[in-house]
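F.,

This is the one I mentioned.
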């Protein structure tokens, strides 16, 4: 049986996007009778997510990148790993080249063309991915680019789009699993006095929960939701969402929910730019430059423009594919089969 390792990290400080999309791929691999193992830095938040999803993991001891390369090479050899998938900004070209030599198949998830990938499969499932030109080490390299390969959680696969209500009654605020910039209170202070119900996601890594509770105590229209197990069921009950612009962008897109995006990290700038260019969501830009006035005005714009919400519903659902994880794992399985067949021919 083929063995697959996944190198990814997540924490309260850096967010959980990399971990969550790798968990989505892992669950599809498990359906194919492959049990992946994560190589990850020590993080209580990450450990909880992996344990909850019954995924094996090894906590890396190295704090230095050079030391980590050696540690991972040793783990690959000890555990006889055939394939490793990387999804991390904590790497280097040398690191990836050594991984390429240490296993049969190297797969890399990328967002912003960070490295000269020597990988056999390069995955960039972002809406702007086709704007990049990736180098290929040989003609057999597979480039899985664009929203055909959207990495969505299982609950978002093959879901219908929402019906757009004429009147806006419910707004959802979700700034990611950790809200790395403590931005939820700013959003709430911008819109809490509006005549709508406001539902607020509080993730497991939030550091601003006290501030959110203080605001909610002042307004009867605010409903706090702690660490929900099924985000889809919550999302579809809302007419508008104010969201961070990470993986949640694509989950909201496949549901067709009119959305206001606020970037929580510089690596999300390409998403913000592209959705604005395509007109499928309202993009306010990076959080550092977003004012409470802009959040309020964007919210009122969507509340008052039914035709715009209808258009966003249609265009976002058309742009985002919901079965991308299955497409990715199909390609991984095909590549493993090709590698194994080549090895057998050499024997």
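My design for it:
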């Amino acid at each position: 049986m083929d063995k697959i390792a996944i190198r990814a990290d997540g924490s309260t400080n850096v967010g959980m996007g990399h971990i969550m999309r790798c968990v989505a791929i892992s669950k599809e691999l498990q359906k194919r009778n492959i049990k992946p193992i994560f190589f990850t830095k020590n993080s209580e938040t990450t450990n909880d997510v992996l344990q909850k999803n019954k995924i094996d993991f090894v906590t890396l001891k190295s704090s230095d990148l050079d030391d980590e390369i050696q540690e991972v090479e040793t783990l690959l050899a000890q555990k006889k790993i055939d394939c490793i998938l990387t999804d991390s900004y904590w790497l280097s070209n040398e690191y990836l080249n050594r991984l390429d030599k240490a296993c049969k198949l190297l797969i890399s998830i990328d967002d912003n063309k960070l490295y000269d990938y020597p990988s056999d499969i390069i995955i960039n499932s972002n809406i702007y991915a086709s704007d990049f030109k990736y180098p290929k080490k040989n003609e057999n390299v597979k480039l899985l680019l664009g929203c055909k390969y959207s990495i969505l959680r299982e609950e978002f696969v093959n879901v219908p789009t929402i019906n757009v209500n004429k009147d806006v009654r419910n707004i959802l605020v979700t700034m990611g699993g950790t809200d790395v910039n403590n931005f939820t209170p700013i959003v709430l202070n911008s819109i809490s006095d509006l005549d709508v119900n406001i539902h607020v996601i509080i993730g497991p890594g939030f550091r601003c929960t006290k501030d959110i509770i203080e605001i909610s105590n002042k307004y009867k229209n605010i409903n706090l939701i702690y660490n929900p197990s099924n985000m889809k069921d919550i999302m579809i009950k809302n007419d508008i969402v104010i969201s961070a612009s990470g993986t949640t962008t694509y989950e909201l897109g496949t549901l067709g929910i009119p959305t206001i995006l606020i970037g929580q990290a510089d690596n999300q700038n390409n998403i913000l730019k592209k959705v604005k260019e395509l007109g499928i969501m309202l993009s306010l830009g990076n959080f550092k430059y977003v004012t409470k006035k802009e959040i309020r005005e964007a919210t009122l714009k969507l509340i008052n423009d039914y035709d715009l919400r209808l258009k966003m519903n249609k265009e976002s659902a058309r742009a985002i594919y919901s079965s991308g994880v299955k497409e990715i794992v199909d390609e991984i399985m095909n590549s493993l089969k090709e590698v194994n067949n080549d090895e057998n021919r050499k024997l």
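The chain is about 40% helix and 20% strand.

Talk soon.
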